[in-house]
Amino acid sequence: xxxRAVVIGAGHYLPERIVENAEFEATLDTSDEWIRxxxxxxxxxxxxxxxxxxQMATRAAEAALKSAGxxxxxxxxxxxxxxxxxxxxxxxxxMVQSQLGMTNGFAFDVQAxxxxxxxxxxxxxxxxxxxxxxxxxxxxxxxxxxxxxWTDRSTCVLFGDGAGALLLEAQDGAGTADDRGILATDLNxxxxxxxxxxxxxxxxxxxxxxxxxxxxxxxxxxxxxxAATAHTALARAGASAEDVDWIVPxxxxxxxxxxxxxxxxxxxxxxxxxxxxxxxxxxxxxxLALSVGVERGQIKPGNLIVTEAIGGGLAWxxxxxxx
Length: 323
Ligand code: UT7
Fold this sequence. Notes:
Blueprint: E1 2-13, E2 17-20, H1 32-39, E3 43-46, H2 53-68, E4 77-81, H3 92-99, E5 106-110, H4 116-129, E6 135-143, H5 153-156, E7 161-173, E8 181-189, E9 197-199, E10 211-213, H6 215-237, E11 246-249, H7 254-263, H8 275-278, H9 285-295, E12 304-311, E13 315-322
Parallel strand pairs: 4-5, 4-6, 11-12
Antiparallel strand pairs: 1-7, 2-3, 6-7, 8-13, 9-10, 12-13
Helix pairs in contact: 2-3, 6-7
Bound molecules: oxa(dethia)-CoA.
Oxa(dethia)-CoA binds at residues 30, 34-35, 38-39, 114, 153-154, 157, 215-216, 218-219, 222, 252-253, 256, 280, 310-311.
């Protein structure tokens, strides 16, 4: 018998305000055509002025709990992947805990930028596999609109806000690749690449800062590293690319998504794509895509899924799970 972390619920939340590419044409030397053709993005959601990451995370968590038919009091831990927490401290995860009315368990944030959800899933899997928790809410939530430089056309048109959540539960499996739940993970980072994608501010430098990115350099690393991490995780799971039902990638750029699928030898029919509607929501993009994939009827129980992501750090990784 092997203790597996099985997904029993998924949910998401997107802020009400939708901004189409064309809206940027009024203030920037850009076009809907450029944004669409270079990134695949058509629109994104932006949080309201008084809307915070923890509030969006809570909405997504409530939806995940509802879809699982569970209540917050049955949750042992909350892991929230975010780089845009409400406050410097406490963690946004503890704010979600109180907003859900939980007085039990423990909660913490994980900060691995766009790879955050993959890191959070891996942590949740470790907590469940080691018997420290039976039920874990894993959330990705971001308000990247707060760290955009609205005069920088090479970054501000790419990102959006939102939240997605999964509820994981300990269940016994046979220890084979046919089990439901997380089968394998692969995490990597290389801090030498800090200057490719970062925010030029923070607590110890006494400012909030704005996102800075050398997009074409990140692009080059993404195509090379994402297929490699997906293959490593698949091999650890005892599966191969042919077994995959869905790739659910980090949604940064349709060209990266297509390049990774091609390197894995899989057609785009096997990829859940939401980048056109959400833009890049950093740590929220994978749980958003998983939840939307279920809602669309793409992802079904028993499907073998590979998620993969890369972002600031650089930090990257993949998780293989059977839904
Ligand atoms: O989620 C974290 C990980 N992040 C990513 O994965 C993002 C990875 N990078 C990308 O998605 C792409 O590199 C971008 C979408 C950011 C850019 O696409 P690109 O094909 O790599 O373009 P580029 O950066 O090489 O820029 C090409 C040209 C430049 O002009 P020149 O130097 O050729 O005259 C840019 O100034 O496009 C220009 N440009 C724009 N033009 C119109 C950059 N941004 C814009 C814009 N509108 N918004």
